[in-house]
Amino acid sequence: MSHDPGQTGTEVPVCPRHPDVVAYVRCQRCGRPTCPQCQRPAPVGIQCVDCVAEARRNAPVVRTVLGGRARGDKPVITVTVIGLSVLAYLLQMVLGGALTSRLVFAPSIGWVEPHRFLTSAFLHGGALHLAVNMYALWIVGSVLEPALGRWRYIALYLLSAIGGSVAVLVLADPEGISWITQVVGASGAVFGLFSAIFLVMRRLGRDATQILVLIGVNFALGFFISSISWQAHLGGAVIGAILAAAYVYAPKDRRTLVSVLATVGVAVVLLVAAYLKYTVA
């Protein structure tokens, strides 16, 4: 005589997921026996892991005012970017200039190795440089990521970083020192986030004066401190503003479409701008 795991009757109840485990506790939702490994606390009683997963799949998606998915968890993308930047800096310290020379951006090398347009944003010129950028990324990113949603946030960050490198390229003189000057740091991407948080606060009707002052002060520093690339700041800020405007002010019923088109459009414009600069130079 055969039986199904979890069958009621005179047979000893066993967990459907673990047929070799006796389970006298039953799921309050489906009624099947569930072993301690598969039990999940519920508002009333215990539910099995399958019912909890099904309820999670069927739960309505809660959106923020700006269309981001309200997850209620940590800003995963922001934490990941910070972790990658810190890891890259540690590798820079261990490997010396070997890693930096392979990933740093300079207009003279971008045509041959285009990955440098982005990889340079994960490198930094010192512990203070890293700390300042990562602090700004955490403060602004932990607010923007849940507001915009993960895919729009990471698109904004990466394209702002690339936009900073493209601005360095476009504004460089092929016959001058700027053509071979190396640029590292997440400043371009961070300035993109600055622009975005400014527009988000304006969209939500909040006072954005402090953000505007912060952007102005940080941008002005690039003209007084020679080691700071104001070109990267400018490029990141412009790209961040364009994308954020599309993400934030798009009609609700067309938000996804507008966001996708804006993201692809900005990526294409950056590609064309870099191509034209290299072909002219």
UniProtKB/TrEMBL annotation:
Keywords: Hydrolase, Membrane, Protease, Transmembrane, Transmembrane helix. The chain crosses the membrane at residues 76-101, 121-141, 153-171, 177-201, 208-226, 232-250, 257-276. One of its GO terms (molecular function) is serine-type endopeptidase activity. It comes from the Bacteria. It holds the Pfam family Rhomboid. Its main location: membrane. GO terms for biological process: proteolysis. GO terms for cellular component: membrane. InterPro entries: Peptidase_S54_rhomboid_dom (IPR022764), Rhomboid-like_sf (IPR035952), Rhomboid_protease_S54 (IPR050925). It is a multi-pass membrane protein. It comes from Georgenia muralis. This is Membrane associated rhomboid family serine protease. Belongs to the peptidase S54 family.
